[in-house]
Amino acid sequence: MQLIVVTGLSGSGKSIALRQLEDLGYYCIDNLPGNYLVPVAEHLHSVGRDLLAVSLDSRSDASIPEISKSFKTLKEHNVDIRVLCLTASTDALVQRYSETRRQHPLSQRSASGPETLVEAIEKERKMLEPFVGFSHIIDTTGMLPNTLNHWIRNFVRAKKGRILLTFESFGFKRGLPMASDLVFDVRCLPNPYWEEDLRKYTGKDQPVIDYLRSKPEVQEMISDIQNFVEKWLPSYEAQNRHYLTVSIGCTGGQHRSVYIAETLARHFSKLYEGVIVRHRTLDAVASKD
Known about the structure:
Elements: E1 2-8, H1 14-23, E2 27-29, H2 37-46, E3 51-55, H3 64-76, E4 80-87, H4 90-100, H5 105-109, H6 117-127, H7 129-132, E5 136-139, H8 145-157, E6 164-171, E7 182-185, H9 206-213, H10 216-238, E8 243-250, H11 256-269, E9 275-279, H12 280-288
Parallel strand pairs: 1-3, 1-4, 2-3, 4-5, 6-8, 6-9, 7-8
């Protein structure tokens, strides 16, 4: 049986994630109380439903010790558990709430009276901090629903290994992804953007690949990042980390970072079963088309 637990900040896209998982064949339950996780999973397994996705967040009144105990019980029954945590910047969440005119769940439950939206968001962010250590995190700031759906499909289809290793390209001019565990700045490398014939291409296109492959400093940067990740990945695994996101940033997120993320993903996919590559800028553009 496979169980995907969706958690994260209210307004970060959990409903979109559950709808996508439902389209992929999962039996989805939103806002499940934590103490019902084991009996629900056992019942669905008994009737032949072996794909389950549940939302556990600040509305669920589920404590970390309670959830950890449930996870331990389910793993003893060979349940493949994956935890997906969605986050976003406070400014992005405030904008989303202003557009929908909905009230934040913690504002509704505040015993001391109504909290401001920003206070409720920061309070929830603090409540969910314990999830971060054992979750695959997706930062949905500035992200279109189609991009989030694409990234969730990649997450679901990735093979389960000792650790799920993600290489994500991004552009610094659009901001640093909040979900980054390791960040490498490659803006010091030759930029294909300034080559007029290459500007329209991306780091996945052969003309740009050939250009960057011909630059010794680009290959040296890739080798340095590769060696760093290979050296320290066992230490992350020793700390019982199941997910690690390595972010590669250039100026616009179109050429250098894309090429390097793709190259690193190909290399590490030969060493690890679970490797994902995704492109924050390119995937956003593709979602608009």
